[in-house]
Amino acid sequence: MRYQITGKQIDIGEALQTHVKNELGTVLEKYAFRPTDATITFSKSAHEYICEVTVHLSTGLTSSAKDKATEIYAAFDGVSEKVDKQLRRYKRRLKDHHKDRAEPVELFGAASYILAGEAESHDDEPDSLQPIIVAEMETQIPSLTVGEAVMQMELAGAPVLVFRNEKKDGVNVVYRRDDGNIGWIDP
User: Fold this and answer.
1) Phi, psi of 92, deg, nearest 5
2) 14, 21, 121, 140: which is deepest, by most CB within 10 A?
3) How far is it, in rounded angstroms, from Cα 90 to Cα 25?
4) From residue 43, how far is each of 2, 11, 21, 92, 95 by CA, in Å?
5) For the residues of 151-183, what is the DSSP string, one character each?
6) Mainly resides where (predicted)?
């Protein structure tokens, strides 16, 4: 497994890197997953340290968590507990479905755009109704079942997930509704 441990404008010492590798390795071994890589980023905001972890599993699913604390080790320990909880739930769902994905998730490339927000002055009419594109990026769309898409959305802590439905071979969307339930769009 590859670890990428970085600090945004703070120095990450060898002791912290060793602690991160040992603790995260223990969490991942507990659930017998085959993680491919983990990205751990530390930063500081005022008096608090922020730790963000993203773990990519060989099945194609991704687990991510974020926590903050006044001490850097406490921030990582909080994130480690969140990742542990996510992976425990994921494994339980796999057991409940009695289905284990034999092949990795297939990914398809797609264009992703960031559009400019509304202008600060609401008095002026815009010259055009076309949105201004701020950035263009490449993104990946996974090929999943609806259940796996809901799992992936919850693992990533995302409000919405676009995926290619394996059963119907079309693009679908799952999202978290305001009432707490999950919505599914199948065009």
Assistant:
1) -65, -40
2) 21
3) 17
4) 20, 9, 18, 32, 36
5) HHHHHHT-SEEEEEETTT-SEEEEEE-TTS-EE
6) cytoplasm
Backbone angles phi, psi at 27, to 5 degrees: -60, -45
- Phi and psi dihedrals of 134, rounded to 5? -90, -40
What CATH number matches the domain at 2-97, 1.10.10.10, 3.40.50.300, 3.30.160.100, 2.60.40.1170? 3.30.160.100
Identify residue 67 by its one-letter amino acid code.
D
Whether pTM > 0.70 for this model: the answer is no
Question: Where do the domains of the chain lie?
Answer: 2-97, 106-185
**Residue for token digits 């983990």?**
38
Using a 10 angstrom Cβ sphere, with 0-12 exposed, 13-18 middle and 19 or more buried, the burial of residue 4 is exposed
Token duo for residue 169: 């071979």
Tokens standing for 23? 């603790």
Do the Cβ atoms of 137 and 123 come closer than 8 Å?
Answer: no
Provide, for the chain, the percentages of residues in helix, strand and coil under a 3-state DSSP scheme, each rounded to the nearest 5: 30, 40, 30
CATH class of the domain comprising 106-185 = alpha beta
